[in-house]
Design a protein that fits this description.
Shape: globular
């Protein structure tokens, strides 16, 4: 799990208290690593590219609301992005953005979908019409209803006062046309500050103290568990399919060649002192979070055991196991 430090995010001179920043999802990092390490003609490559485009659209949509959230009063709200927790019964729930004050909590589900959207309440589905083509999506209103229930149940188990929990489906693409949607549940991102202001006026009773707000955010950060999927298993890709070697930081050519203490790229003629660090990141994302000297030499195409040892030692990685079977924690 990545550790997030409490921070203040500043936009246009307004400080908004963000207890958990938004970061590039591990899935996107893994997809990028996998795509650059699969052969050009690999049969799964087009599917992975489509999945990456879809994931990037979702991530960019979530990032696009940050500007609108920057106008909130930092003394009144705490914001947490990309939360995933166990509800206490072995079921995980994920929240794009959670905002809470002493009076209420607000759960945001962000959708970056273009075209014309119709929220079909009869059959509980989202319909998208684009280029005269109609597509169906899972109903995000049902999704946030379930998330609200799980969050409320989790909240009660923490033995903290439970304020009213509201939810909004936020459409991040400003050109998207919204039709047949509940006006109090589906909004464009630009109107987000207005809707939060309405909630502030609606809920006047202070349920949480400032101390309880801080305790709550600490509990959420402590219990947050990132979704870390094994993409090789998920997409039925063999480890043998992955291209080994250090990739060029400039042009992404694989492999670079180790010569005279540096890495040299024959494709773009560039040099790098520490390109092997990027290869180790790929190894961790795709293969595992520990590596031996032998595995390091194989993956990075290093012929000398002593050179591999020096490179690993310079990284100051935590050793695991005895000398003969020693591995290093990435």
């Amino acid at each position: 799990m990545r550790i997030y430090r409490n921070s203040l995010s500043t936009m246009r001179g307004v400080d908004v208290l963000i207890k958990k920043n938004r970061s590039v999802p591990i899935k996107i990092q893994k997809l990028n690593a996998l795509l650059r390490r699969l052969p050009f003609n690999h049969p799964k490559k087009s599917r992975l590219q489509e999945e990456l485009a879809k994931s990037m659209a979702g991530y960019n949509g979530e990032k696009s609301i940050d500007f609108h959230l920057s106008f909130l009063d930092p003394r009144a709200f705490i914001i947490l992005h990309d939360i995933r927790m166990d509800d206490g019964d072995g079921r995980y729930f994920q929240i794009d953005t959670l905002i809470f004050s002493t009076k209420f909590a607000l759960l945001l589900e962000v959708k970056n979908i273009s075209g014309t959207l119709i929220f079909d309440r009869t059959y509980n589905q989202l319909l998208r019409i684009i280029n005269d083509k109609e597509e169906g999506f899972p109903d995000p209103i049902l999704q946030v209803t379930r998330q609200k229930k799980q969050l409320g149940e989790w909240w009660v188990k923490q033995k903290l006062p439970l304020p009213p929990i509201s939810s909004l489906i936020v459409i991040s693409n400003p050109s998207t046309i919204i039709k047949s949607a509940p006006s109090n549940q589906v909004i464009h991102a630009a109107s987000l500050p207005y809707h939060i202001s309405k909630l502030t006026q609606q809920f006047k009773e202070e349920i949480l103290t400032q101390k309880e707000m801080k305790k709550l955010s600490s509990l959420i950060l402590k219990q947050h568990v990132s979704l870390d999927q094994d993409l090789l298993n998920q997409y039925d890709i063999l480890k043998e399919d992955i291209l080994t070697g250090v990739h060029c930081p400039s042009c992404y050519h694989i492999p670079m060649q180790r010569q005279r203490g540096t890495w040299f790229c024959h494709a773009c003629q560039s040099n790098s002192i520490d390109a092997h660090k990027l290869a180790l990141i790929d190894y961790k994302l795709l293969i595992g979070d520990t590596i031996s000297n032998n595995q390091f030499r194989h993956f990075c195409h290093i012929s000398s055991k002593s050179i591999a040892s020096k490179l690993l030692a310079a990284l100051e990685l935590e050793p695991i196991g005895n000398r003969k079977g020693r591995k290093y924690k990435l």
